[in-house]
Amino acid sequence: MFRTRRRWLVAAFVLAITAIAYIDRVNLSIAAPVLTTEFHTNAAVMGLLLSSFTWTYTLLNLPAGMLVDRVRTRILYSAALLIWAVSSFLTTLAGSVAAMFGPRLLLGVGEAPFAPAAIRTLADWLPKSERGTGSSMFISGVALGTAVGPPGLAFLVSTYGWQSCFIASGTLSLLAAVIWYAWYRHPLEDSRLTGRERELIVADQEPPQQEGRAPWSAIIRHRDIWAITSGYFCLLYILYTFITWLPSYLVQDRGMTVLSSGFTTSIPWICAFVVGLLGGRISDVAVRRGMSSLDARKIVLVGGMVAALAILGTAFSASGAVAVLCLSVSTSGIIFSNGAVWAATTDIMRSLNLSGSATGFVNGLGNVGGILGPIVTGALVYATGSFVVPLVVAAGLALVGALAWAFGMRSAPTASVAGRPVAGMGDARSSAAGAGS
Q: Could you confirm whether the keyword Membrane appears in this record (predicted)?
């Protein structure tokens, strides 16, 4: 079976690396309540620290995306994972909040190529008709890492101290780096890929519209890319608010212990993992039944952000169980939409050989929302003494994101090269695979 499904083994490995990436991100969130007490700091300062990873991550996403279109993902992914490991190990040496900023900024450097490399890998390995499912697998790794990370890391923090969770996540990253480098090959070079599966992959990919890569300005001029980026800004504001502040919310507003908050935090993300896989499947089925690729992705994008409005129930519910239920719906909606962001981006830019660069562009600008989410939330919690106002703000961003995708994206993807339109590229079929990794 696996001899004819190797592309799904690659997609599963991408999912696993994504889960590790988010375990590396959430480790600080789990340790935050302990660090706040041990280092005598407050929510506003902790918000800056929780956000600091996104500073370098966002700044370097654009160049990292361009790098992915030029360097093999086998090498780039392995190098990135090594940096994640070093960052986690260095964090254990910190003796103050200020000393933690350096390792977190380094983590942002290492994770900058992560999303572009994932999308480039999936673009190389999956035909268009399976791209939504592959992208949703990638994004479901976000939910998986954020689901399995908190309970395990919370146990380590409660039992062995906060340093232990960084040692564990660093070791995991190191192992993944070694395994990926030893195992992964580009589909045109993979001797374990059958000829039948290689033909299936190549036959349903967009044909390149020109030799080499299109001008990078093709990304900037594209209306749909800007619409995707606008909605993604809103999505990442909410996502990073949840990732960084959910454990502290459960401790402060719901009166849980660090250990119980770690287990409760996993509930919304377990739900999101399952729902996220469905999102890609839904859009792929719609594409196979004749719907234009962007219309199919738009259904998932808008539907997920509408579901994210359930965060209002968390803000105003007096019941802890109802609050967690609403969190689960909202988180599932975010992950449901997130995979379609990358399927749509690849649909638009694959034929111009700019999948990595376009991913870096969308992810880089979108992550400005990821920077602001933890900072604004920390400041509002510090000013108001609760999470009600920050959660209402997050709901407002969900509405804005849904509107941006509903009315900003056109029905059929188009792009231009040197002023000449390239229409319908999202529905093109191919006899050649993309170069690169």
A: yes
How far apart CA 267 and CA 283 sit, in angstroms, is: 25
* Residue found under tokens 């792009």: 415
Residue 136 CA to residue 138 CA, distance in Å, equals: 5
Residue 435 lies in a domain: no
pLDDT digits (tens, 9 = 90+) for 28-48: 988 988 998 899 888 888 888
**Cα separations in angstroms, 53 against 26, 76, 127:** 11, 19, 34
The pLDDT tens digits of the residues spanning 89-124 come to 999 999 899 999 999 999 999 999 988 899 889 988
Residue 428 lies in a domain: no
Calpha distance 235→249 (Å, rounded): 19
Give the pTM.
Answer: 0.74
- Indicate the number of domains in the chain: 1
- Whether 241 contacts 136, CB under 8 Å: no
Whether residue 358 contacts residue 232, with contact meaning beta carbons closer than 8 Å, is answered with no
CATH at 258? 1.20.1250.20
410 secondary structure, DSSP code = -
Domain that holds residue 62: 2-423
